Amino acid sequence: MITHDILVVGGGLAGLSAALTADPHLSLAIISRVHPLRSHSVAAQGGINAALGNSQEGRDDNWEKHAFDTIKGSDYLADQAAAELMCREAVPTIYEMEHLGVPFSRSPVGLIAQRPFGGAGFPRTCFAADRTGLVIAHTLYEQAIKRQVKVYDEALVTKLVVENGRCVGVVIYDLATGQVLPMRARAVIFATGGYGRVYLRTTNAYINHGSGIGIAYRAGVALKDMEFVQFHPTSIYPKNILITEGARGEGGYLVNNKGYRFMADYAPSAMELAPRDIVARSIQTEVDKGRGFEDEYVHLDLRHLGQKKIDKRLPSVREICLKFGGIDPVETPIPIQPAQHYSMGGIDVDVRCVSSLAGFYAAGECACVSVHGANRLGGNSLLDTVVFGKIAGQEASNFVNGLELKDGNEKFLLDEAVAEKAKVDTWLSRSGGKMAHHLLNDLKVVMSEKAGIFRTKKELAEALEAIREIRDDYGRAFISGQCLRYSQAIVNLVEFGYMVDLTEVITLGALLREETRGSHYRLDFPKRDDAGWLKHTLVSLKDGKPEVAYRDVQITKYQPQERKY
Amino acid sequence: MKYTFRILRFDPGVDQSPCFQDFIYETEEKKSLLEALMDIRNDQDCSLSFRYSCREAVCGSCAMVINGQFDLACRTMMESLGTSLIVLEPLPNLEIQKDLIVDMEPFWRALFAVEPYLFPGETSPENGHRIEDREMEKIDQFVNCIMCGCCYSACPVVARDERYLGPAALAKLYRFVKDPRDERGYKRWSRVNTEAGAWGCDTVFKCNEVCPRKVRPADGIEGLRRKLIWGKVKSLFKRVR
Ligand SMILES: Cc1cc2nc3c(=O)[nH]c(=O)nc-3n(C[C@H](O)[C@H](O)[C@H](O)COP(=O)(O)OP(=O)(O)OC[C@H]3O[C@@H](n4cnc5c(N)ncnc54)[C@H](O)[C@@H]3O)c2cc1C
Questions:
Q1: How far is the alpha carbon of B170 from chain A, nearest alpha carbon, in Å?
Q2: CA-CA distance, A244 to A248, in Å (whole number)?
Q3: I want to staple B18 with a disulfide (CB 3.0 to 4.6 A). Which of A249, A347, B10, B35 is the partner?
């Protein structure tokens, strides 16, 4: 049986960071459903935050101000000690990455350049043109090559194996062979990314199904603050590919069909650089009030930046517009609309990435520490993945090194795999039923229409009911064809089951939270309610049903204030 | 609009040899090839295999040969092809694992062989290096590479000589050799001073032509050659003195 000390599931930034910081004396492997460089992290464009204070305007910046912006941006739902830790670590982390070879863009004096991003008091976002995620992911992968980190790619983890309350491994579906196999480990780190694809419109990769979060939930680990879903203000219409916040950071305008920079009405001082939740709602409001175009989008105008700046600072944006939108931003405004973008919530872990299940850790977008609270600031997610990925690697190593227990029982692991295989066989043997991809589409429609940017009790309750019906249908879902090798249909079917769980948890949390905070906007409860709701939602699976609990937010020194920009 | 997709299908354990299969696909929308492929898989044959992930031309998963041209399926809009017959084949120079999925192992092995990571100096300046943007611009195009494998597959030298490292790996090496922060010695990287390395290139520039990210790998190979010659001249000088 394949056995390692540590298994890291996920080859994005969080997974690579974890693998690179784990104790090199331990046997470690990365498992990923795609090659690490195909992970969603490579799509990150805009940048990564750290209070380096490298620019003239940023001289007075420091990590405390970064922490304050993060906490305010989170609408005070972030755990403050965690946010402080992340922002303090940010500065050495950026220099470390620079020393590993990340080709950051430079300032005129040759330092790492920094651009302004939404919700930040200073230009704090380090970047490499508009392909920051790509170059960081490649750099970390290069380090993984250097250290000869073992990678099992194109293997989908379908289940966590828990023996006597301890995580002892995973079950995988190996795409190349079509086999379902157990893999044993003393510690497992999940770095499986977000779940954007439960929505119809999302900036996320096709593979972002969020199964990792669902797998943890099924293994009994609580999910935290799942109702907080970030909608990015600017995705290109109609393909919903992201146009980075960097486009506004570099000076882009948002305009409605009257040619008016409408952000003046919503965030008069921050304008286009207000935090994402606010900008996304403003755009949606403009469109809903008939001030958009084709009732779908508004314009992001970059023309005044000029071709030179666009080519230098935003080359991918231009490329995306040309290829996917058929327009040139040098000459034409970009049609944009909000789309799901990021999962603030996730697997409940503490500031050391430790979960309630012994031997199980989580980091990156799949985890909720929580540093982003009710709304993440642009540039803080890449930071989160690298900082907490490292912590997870260290923490899992300490756990394994201190462990006196034996490896998990082989027979037990094998039985778990056999049971997973039986599920696949059942699907393949069905000759009729509802087509899985139709069901999945139904689920996305429900989420987009009833649990999107603006929410109400009525719609959320309807969504919950619809999701539970889809779950029944999932039990009878059907795929055509028999092939086991490289079967995306099997992958999709496995993940779909977990997506149903996730949508249920998101919707349930949203229904119960009767206030408006950050990305969670309740038309029927339009105010933040600190007396009642300054707390995290925790949903865990008890006897097959979601059970809800709450936990107070950790406050250090930043008392909640009204959030104005 | 009605399209015919003619897709090369092959399952090595099952089929004798690859052969084309036609699928009829109708759509009124502006769709990318990747979207169409996903529809075909979902609605017509779920055993049809191809790789994909980001759908925005940055993860490098969905490179294939589209009507004879190398490109990413996600960034190819169907209408841009100007024909209703769309022929899809897996990347050549690599073995087919299933349908449009090829074994990338030789491609990665070539990459590993050039030690594709930064060799930092003994001491690193605490607050980062001071480097002018001008210097970084020299490696700019090379860090745009997404490792999709188009150049490797299109390269006529790779086709005839499996020892040849290929354009992507050599361009990656050049990216580091040119990086002002990198201090790998000449001895270390000049191992590519061979026919399997920098001198293998035929300079037909297929790689430049097919890159979906506007990288010009041949620039990198040429740069390596220049540096190799220069290195040789320098060592001759030393001997004369
Ligand atoms: C278009 C876009 C642009 C962005 N730009 C920025 C930005 O500029 N700045 C910023 O800070 N943030 C940005 N973000 C957010 C940021 O990119 C992500 O939050 C971050 O990259 C997530 O990294 P990760 O390592 O947690 O997950 P990912 O990079 O998504 O990696 C997940 C990994 O898990 C694997 N995996 C998942 N499930 C399974 C399973 N069941 N079995 C096996 N493997 C599995 C996948 O194969 C993958 O390797 C952006 C996001 C998007 C969508």
A1: 15
A2: 8
A3: B10
Residue appearing with tokens 């099924």: A218
* Closest residue to B144, CB basis, from A99, A131, A487: A131
Chain A, chain B: beta-carbon pairs less than 8 Å apart: 159
Residue at A105: amino acid letter: S
Give tens-digit pLDDT for A68-97: 999 999 999 999 999 999 999 999 999 999
Q: What is the CATH number of the domain that holds B69?
A: 3.10.20.30
Hey, which residues does A541 pair with through a beta bridge?
A: A546
Closest C-alpha to A266, from A565, A489, A52: A565
Centroid of ligand 1 to alpha carbon of B54 (angstroms): 10
pLDDT in tens, B4-59: 999 999 999 899 999 999 999 999 999 999 999 999 999 999 999 999 999 999 99
- Which of left, alpha, beta for A108 (phi over 0: left; psi -120 to 50: alpha)? alpha
- Three-class SS state of A343: strand
Phi, psi at residue A532, to the nearest 5°? -95, -30
Enumerate residues 6+ apart whose C-beta is below 8 A from B228.
B190, B192, B193, B198
Domain residue limits at A321:
233-339
Q: How crowded is residue B50: how many other Cβ atoms within 10 Å of its Cβ? A: 23
Cα separation of A145 and B147, whole Å?
Answer: 14
Total domain count, chain A? 2
3-state secondary structure of A419: helix
Q: Summarize pLDDT for B98-107 with one digit per residue, the tens.
A: 999 999 999 9
Which tokens is A346 given? Answer: 């996730």
Quick one: closest CA in B to A480, which residue?
A: B46
- Which phi-psi region, left, alpha or beta, contains residue A353 (left: φ > 0; alpha: ψ -120 to 50)? left
ipTM: 0.97
Give the angle subtended at the CA of A484 by the CAs of A172 and A9, to the nearest 5°.
20
B58 touches chain A (CB under 8 A): yes
Q: Final residue of a domain: which of A290, A322, A339?
A: A339
Q: Are residues A333 and A424 in the same domain?
A: no
Low-confidence residues in chain A, pLDDT < 50: none
Euclidean distance between CA atoms A151 and A128, whole angstroms: 27
A150-153/A28-32 β-pairing: parallel
The two structure tokens encoding residue A348: 């409940």
Cβ of A145 within 8 Å of Cβ of B116? The answer is yes
Domain that holds residue B141: 105-240
- The stretch B178-201 carries a mean pLDDT of 95
HEC profile of A424-486: HHHHHHCCCCCEHHHHHHHHHHHHHHHCCCEECHHHHHHHHHHHHHHHHHHCCCECCCCCCCC
Structure tokens at B17: 């040899």
Instruction: Say whether the peptide bond before residue A238 is cis (omega within 30 degrees of 0).
Output: yes
Which residues of A are tagged catalytic? 232, 248
- Closest CA of chain B from A100, distance in Å: 6
What does A95-152 look like in DSSP terms, one character per residue?
A: HHHHHHT----B-TTSSBPEE--TT-SS--EE-STT-HHHHHHHHHHHHHHHTT-EEE
| Residue A277 within a domain | yes
Q: For residue A133, give the ligand 1 atom closest to its CA.
A: 17
Pairing of strands A48-49, A545-552: unpaired
> In chain B, how many H helices and how many E strands?
9, 7
3-class SS of residue B163: coil
Q: Is A440 on the interface with B (CB under 8 A)?
A: no
Residue ID of nearest Cα to ligand 1 atom 10: A379
Among B81, B101, B121, the domain-final residue is: B101
Does residue A298 lie within any of the structural domains?
yes
Q: In this structure, are B114 and B180 located in the same domain?
A: yes
Nearest atom in ligand 1 to the alpha carbon of residue A34 is 47
Judge whether A9 lies within some domain. Answer: no
Contact between chains at B46 and A488 (C-beta distance less than 8 A): yes
* Residue B27 shares a structural domain with residue B78: yes
Task: Give the per-residue pLDDT at B128.
Answer: 84
Look at strands B19-26 and B2-9 and give their pairing.
antiparallel
